[in-house]
Amino acid sequence: MKKLKITFNSPVVLGFIFISFGVLLLGYLTAGMTNQLLFMTYHSALTDPFTYVRFFTHVLGHSGWEHYIGNAAYILLLGPMLEEKYGSKRILQVILITAVVTGLVNYLLFWNVALCGASGVVFAFILLTSFTSFKNGEIPLTFILVAIIFIGQQVYEGLFLQDNISNLSHVLGGVIGAIVGYRLNKK
Question: Can you list the alpha helix ranges (DSSP code H) found in the chain?
Answer without folding.
Answer: 11-29, 33-38, 49-57, 65-86, 88-109, 119-129, 141-146, 152-160, 167-185
